[in-house]
Amino acid sequence: MARGIEIERKFLLDGLPPTMRFARREPIRQGYIALDGDTEVRVRITPKAAVLTIKSGRGGVRTEEEVVLDARQGDALWELTEGRRVQKARRRVRIGDAEAEIDEYSGALDGLVVAEVEFDDEEAAGVFEPPSWFAREVTDDSRYSNRSLASDGIPRDAGA
């Protein structure tokens, strides 16, 4: 079985650009069942599905495998994530050949807005030119990983 690989770059935003305010939003609940070194096991619940994800590595290129869960499994696993959760609303937008996922966090992370851009290969990631409405890149800053946000909260210097 081939390994799944995720190649992405992550950026802070000063807020949503006006053109995105009315884009369709998908609410996401995401919690971490296990965190061990560079490996994490999480459950993500959206109105469409519950998914168990195992990721390994840090930064822009990581191993990622996903398993779709039924509603009962999703709810049962969600209970195991107490104290390691994030809630956000996601919007998607095309930027050239790439798709950006814009996440607006709520709850304890209210006000944090992050763009994640996924790529087919490392070359595409390397040549990507972020639009002017992207602020600071945080791809290699582990404090802005969802797992850190879920466990440690918003970094003190979160202002883009």
Protein architecture, described:
The chain has 160 residues and is mainly beta. It is 13% helix and 45% strand. The protein has helices at 71-78, 122-127, 146-152, and strands spanning 5-13, 26-36, 39-45, 50-56, 61-69, 85-95, 98-105, 113-118, 134-137. The radius of gyration is 15 Å and the shape is globular. The protein starts with a strand and ends in an 8-residue tail after the last helix.
Outline of the structure:
By secondary structure, the protein is mainly beta. It contains 3 helices and 9 strands.
Explain the layout of strands and helices.
Layout: E1 5-13, E2 26-36, E3 39-45, E4 50-56, E5 61-69, H1 71-78, E6 85-95, E7 98-105, E8 113-118, H2 122-127, E9 134-137, H3 146-152
Antiparallel strand pairs: 1-5, 1-8, 1-9, 2-3, 2-6, 3-4, 4-5, 6-7, 7-8
User: Spatial order of the strands in the main sheet?
Assistant: 1-5-4-3-2-6-7-8
Query: Cα distance, first to last residue?
Result: 40 Å
- Content-based structural category: mainly beta
- State the total count of DSSP E strands: 9
Largest β-sheet summary: 8 strands, antiparallel, barrel
Q: Identify low-pLDDT runs.
A: none
Number of helices: 3
